[in-house]
Amino acid sequence: MSMLAFTPFQLRNVTLKNRFLLAPMATQYVEKGGIIGDSLIDYYIHMALTGVAAVIVEAAAIATEGRGWSRQLSAASPNDLPGLSHIAEAIRERGSIPLLQIHHAGRQGLPADASGYVVGPSGIPCPVLGRPVRVLNPKDIKTLVTKFTDAARIAERAGFAGIELHGAHGYLLHQFVSPLTNKRDDEYGLKNPNPYRFPLEVVKSIRMAVPDMILAYRLSARDYLPRGLTLEHSVPLAIALADAGVDMLHVSGGMYASLHGPESIVGPSTPSGVFRSDAHDIRQAVRVPVAVVGKIQTPALAEEILQNSDAHLIALGRILLRDPLWIQKAQGQSDVPVRPCLLCSRCRYHLKGCPDDQQKPIWVK
Ligand SMILES: Cc1cc2nc3c(=O)[nH]c(=O)nc-3n(C[C@H](O)[C@H](O)[C@H](O)COP(=O)(O)O)c2cc1C
Ligand code: SF4
Predict the structure, then answer these.
(1) Residue 365 covered by a domain
(2) pLDDT, tens only, 132-152
């Protein structure tokens, strides 16, 4: 049977060889001093060789003070160019399209100094991390628009075909669009005729700076929290993002605080393909391609999502760590069944291999 999953797809100026993307996954392999060593490069070679049409490289910080974790990739400075170029080249050479996710953690970040403060749209700490929040003023926000744009330029110079803005999972861009985290009453508040000003300013600025690059935007369609973001907000946001020049919307869900809902790294008790119906609703509302992620672990489910027009593209995360032959198996090149992911969350903190693996993955040095 021919599968829609193995038909090519045109994304802006690039032809994707199939409908599969590697979901961005923070590896924690960046070495001290921001050095990109063999482990990180080997990991991306390995993931490109799985056969995905595009690799979305893990969240890279647009500013040192916006980091979400200590060994995070960076796209904040021209000093990051050599390492990023190495990653982009390693992916291209293995026949996949390199995209870089860029990110500011906002209130879910690491404090930049001994004060312990992080930044955000309003002074509401993340209930999980509890770090005090300094409210960004309009001048700070303009500076961040510039930093996002500079990071996109760095990605372009490094040879990436595109970038993905991390607007999901409770990080800074998400914080500006969620009613739980944005209580502002200025021009960046949600009560304005243009409630999504900050992400739209970022998108427009990047679109002008790098007109030839793919510009994707990952969003959480819902917060899964009382009085939080729902499709009532995320559908108009998606429409506005597409109008502002985004080439692809990548639908996910949740934030750190959504511990009792289908949080972003979908747990065992949450149904497979949990975000597909939100992707479907967003797809109906916009003209740009939509990708969906979230516990899509069998080829049959991926194909069903595509056939049902829930999304144009499927992002695969943990299942490709678990079974690098997944795409070949989906294509019928092997009769060995797919190796199910245990959904144990061990990889969430460091990619050291699955608990029942006899050998370490090739990228663990
Ligand atoms: C180890 C790990 C690191 C992750 N890092 C990121 C990240 O850097 N950026 C991001 O948007 N999502 C990140 N995620 C979330 C994944 O991209 C994906 O949305 C999630 O794992 C659900 O997809 P899956 O069920 O296919 O794994 C991470 C997930 C894992 C397991
Ligand atoms: S470490 Fe656990 S959750 Fe991660 S890929 Fe392996 S089995 Fe799946």
Answers:
(1) no
(2) 999 999 999 999 999 999 999
